[in-house]
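Narrative of activities, Objective 1.

The group set out to show that a structural description can be obtained from nothing but a protein's sequence at a throughput compatible with the screening campaign. Below is one input-output pair from the validation batch, recorded exactly as produced.
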Amino acid sequence: MDKKFFAYYDSPVGILEICTTENELISVLYVEDANESSECPEILQEVIKQLDEYFNGDRKDFDIKFKLKGTEFQKKVWTALTDIPYGETVSYKNIATKIGNEKAVRAVGSTNGKNIINIIVPCHRVIGANKSLTGYGGGLHRKSWLLKHEGSIE
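Output recorded for this entry:
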């Protein structure tokens, strides 16, 4: 079993708990309080650097090796999320169509809500077909902030 490393990042949208193995990102989750960080392998330092660049407006795409854990369907959805360009939004139906299952809109929504690599796997870029901000695990206030930061909403 791979050893896990943790760091806490104080972002403009709250504290993020970043978890990696020695070689890949496992999760970026919103937490209420920062705990003590562990030793910091190179990949963890790189995630922090790229998050800094993103929040400073200098980075639009992440270049981090990450591990998706879930069913094949979930992995397809999460992979499709990584193709949504910075500054753009798509609907759940767009994602369902992209993965070849246009009737799976609800399942896409459910899977989107189970994403544990927030921001880097940009589930915040998925909105309702009527352009409304729909659920976000980190809360709609964070989703709104991220989309405004990326310039996709006013």
